[in-house]
Give the backbone structure.
Amino acid sequence: MKPFMSALALAFVATTARAQVGHLPENSPYRDLEASQELSFFGGRYSAGKDPIGVAPSGGPMYGLRYEIHVGGPAFLMARFAHVNGERFPIDPTKSGTAAQLGRKNVSLKLFDVNLVLNLTGQKSFHNIVPVINFGAGIASCNCTVSPDPYTFGTPFAFSFGGGLRYVPGGRFQLRADWGDYLYQLKYPTAYYLTPTTGTAAAGGGQARSFWKNNRALSLGASLLFFR
């Protein structure tokens, strides 16, 4: 009987010790994420990358919408639209110096992309926080032509990637902060490489006709969550 009682006591102690490891469900820092979809409105700042000649759309305030749907595990599929209130400084390549400057023009840059988003804490939040990363592709678009400047931005293909933090307090709303990068190609027209009758060409010093550049964005947003 004594060996049986000793074994029972040891089993009880071991079970109690195991129960003290970790957290009770109501005290755990982890919470299940119940929403399978979200619609977010965001606003922030878009910072255009370096443009050697300075004729491409610059950065400015941005705002937009993003929609996400759960596709399995920690993965979501995200579609996003962003609008940037930017500006550009067109030039007349047939002239040089200050005579070539056409002044500042307000332009609208539009960004469309589709991304795969991964929750780094899986389908749970940690103290109501969910760190995320995303990567995908889309297009950029701007009707930026200003006569007599022959430069056109067009609709270049754009890679996108970034990350952020979601604050999920519970219920149907959340807040989020995101950082992103849009990588697309700029192309200068042939006229920029022709020397005007007086002065020098707008593009000199072996400047490439086309090149890729990074354009960064920071934003804050609020989301409406849709449950399963």
